Amino acid sequence: MHTGSAVIQLLVAGIGTGSIYALIALGFNVVFKSTGAMNFAQGEWVVMGGMTSALLFAATNNILLACLAAVLIIIVVGIVSERLVIWPLRRPNALLITLVSIGLAICTRSLVMLVLGKKPVGYPGFSSTATLEVAGITVQTQTLWIIGVTLVFLIAMHLFFERSIMGKALRAAAADRDAAAIVGVRVETTVMLSFAIAALAGALAGAIITPLTLSSYDQGAMFGFKGFSAAMLGGVGSLPGAIVGGLALGLLEAFGSFYISSDFKDAIAFAVLLLILFVRPSGFLGRADVVKV
Amino acid sequence: MSDSLLRVESLNCYFAGLRAVAELSFDVQPGEIKAVIGPNGAGKSTLFNMIAGVTRPTSGEIWFDGSRIDNLPTFRRARLGIARTFQNLQIFREMTVLENVMVGRHMQGQSSVMGALLYTPAMRAENRAMTETALDLLARFELDTKAQVLAGDLSFGQMKVLELARALASKPRLLLLDEPAAGLPQAEAEHIGQIITTLNRDGMTVLLVEHNMRMVMSLSHDILVLNNGLRIAEGDADHVRRHPDVLAAYLGDAEYA
Amino acid sequence: MTVLPMNTAVTARAARPWHLSDHARLLIVWFALLVIPFLAPNAYVVSLANMMFINIILIASLNLLMGYGGQISLGHAGFYGLGAYVSGVLGVKFGLSAWVGLPAAALITGLAALLIGIPVLRLRGLYLSMATLGWNAILVVLFNRLVDITGGPNGLLGVRPFSFGDFALDNDFRQFPLVWLVALLVMLAILNFLRSRIGRAVRAVATNELGADAVGIDSFRTKLLVFVLTAGMAGIAGSLYVHVNQFASPETFSVSSSILLVVMVAIGGSGSFWGPILGAAIYTAVPQVLLDYEDAELMLFGLAMLIVLIVSPTGLAGIPAALRRRFARRPA
Predict the structure, then answer these.
(1) CB distance A88–C310 less than 8 Å?
(2) Engineering a disulfide at C77: which of C109, C180, C258, C276 sits with its beta carbon 3.0 to 4.6 angstroms away?
(3) Is A285 inside a domain boundary?
(4) Among partner residues C5, C16, C217, which is closest to B106 by beta-carbon distance?
């Protein structure tokens, strides 16, 4: 057993999981930037994306179509959620929105449980071949898809935020609501938009990870929590931070569970979160004043 | 001067290279009313916040009654006898008027956690005493009829008086007033001014930051004028009124009588 | 910055601390509850009542922390679990009596809260909540993985009940007086606390920390105090739980449970003294009522929480006052 190839295998696996975490972290960060709140429903959207894709695949037998349609549906769910529970709030503040998102997450999960069932579901990967042999290492093709899709999505997001008017409006509203409102940005719409993007990111993550892990209604909390840890690690609110944090967490988990213990793998994310909060709340790329009293 | 109540020595405050207060030294004598004035951006708030403990000075010393306080957090300064009011009011809106003042008496109580959990006679006696003192204080400020009203439901002027009452409840020796007249119509501002004068006659030392020149000129024994973080004049009302540097600094700024 | 209403219902009465009206009310309600074992159709109802009292301790302590102390903890069930396991393990592994386990549970949870609170309470609102969540999650991992001590996912078995010599409190009717009493003592302690100088300081810090600093209150110490105190109470609830059920398993103390506890505080009425009793009643009764539809239970709680937050932040306990205000607004 070559340790060299083991390391590369772990690296690939870590980057693969890390990409998923990066997507979820991005979802958190986008909502955080526009509301200051932590959206507990984020993880549930991941599950929804995976399970809906499975449902549509069973109906259409076309994976790409199913995933695309599922993602679109979850985007609508995200928008409807925002309109139903965030928009009516009379005096929104970060903590209140966070608590509301807890209620939303609970409702979303029970909806998934009731409508899509409790059985774990899955579908085959995007490529016809499940694994690939490259230079003596076995790589899941789906992992390559995950990394690829994530990369494309991140580039699209970058272009959106840097180049498009909507993206800039979102950033403006996130930076200073009042100032943005004065120059004509409809702040309420940007909040809705941020929920749509977060739902998109979450659903995408769910759609591309399901071939590897299956999707079931109770995974939402774990996805959400790990994505949040990744967001904090990279610096909450920072979009490049989501990438950094996600990859870091993914690699930490992969190497940690191999070299230390796979039993405590889940604890790694929690320990990372606490460490970050206590030692460097700003994460790698964020600002400290957001977090400490 | 060893008999000053508050002494500030070579105080500096830089925010990321921006000079807010530079090499400032002055003192406040017991029993005096000292005002700090200056145009916007002169550094008054920064100075005030450094004395109150909200901002850390970059260098320099602050002495209160013989003890060095510039490295102490706000609550420790309060325990030494410094009370303050806030320009934008930091009353407890969700608590009643009476409770606001009772909280002001916090330091005067001795009850422990066990006493609190067990509702001992000592604790009950303490509550009674605190309530009485608080009501007396409110009566002095004509707010006793509002004792059960939520502080957030008071008018702005009443809130300012409440905050003053709360500050007094802590039995301070030095009262720091942050723009006490801000946002008040002249009549109410004068009312606050009268309260301050009365308190001072009874021995309270006061340091205030204020824009309302009428109040400053009529109340203060001594006035410190700042501009760009530096002292440009210090002295009584007449001296300051005529000082050419002061006039120059204020040219273009309104508000003096 | 307050999210859920801060103690408006109790406020006016708090100003007249020598009035025993709230104490009297509490005692009256509690003595009324004494009839349960006599009126109950079967032992099962009594066991539900026992759980309700334990839940009252849990929810009331969280309410003290959240509604009065302004700290939203998503890890309260973790302290509950810590208390349960400490008390249970002391009995199972070391043969110590449950009467030793109970104070030990309170002390050790308090200590744990002290240790974790010192770094956590320096964080602002949202991050404080997330840190408590992380802490709870780590505790659950420990409950699950330290199999030799805790019994792992299968749970801690063979826990002995409270007993007076040979007289063991091993059935629902015998356990009832104990949980009834402990819950009463905890509620009294909370009531007393709120009426005290320190209780007012806690509320002041939660309402406006700058203002509290200005009058000489050590805000950090105050926040730590209420965090430790309420954790200790959760630990007491845990000890009661483990010796009443003679069993404990990690999933009772999960992050989801912590979140549900927060939901119950909100539904009952955060910051109201009586809210937790309503919250506990709902938390205990609803799963039984929905036994066949247990999947709907979660949805119900989620919806209730949303309704409370969006429409009626004062929760159920705030309804009488809201109605009073409604009718008071009518023109004379």
Answers:
(1) yes
(2) C258
(3) no
(4) C217
